[in-house]
Amino acid sequence: MNYQKIYNQIIERADNRAKTRKEARETLGYSERHHVVPKCMKGSNHKENLRFLTAKEHFLCHLLLCEIYPNNYKLKQAIFLMSNIPVHKVSARLYERLKKEYSISISGINNPGYGKSTLVRMIEKYGEEEAKIRFEEYRKNLSKAQQNRPPVTKEVCEIISKAKKGKKQSESHHANVLIANAKKKGTKLTEEHQKKISENCGTPCTEERKQRIGAANKGKEPWNKGLHPGQPEGKVTWNKGLKKEDYELYRQNKNNNK
Question: How confident is the model at residue 37 (pLDDT cuts 50, 70, 90)?
Answer without folding.
Answer: very high
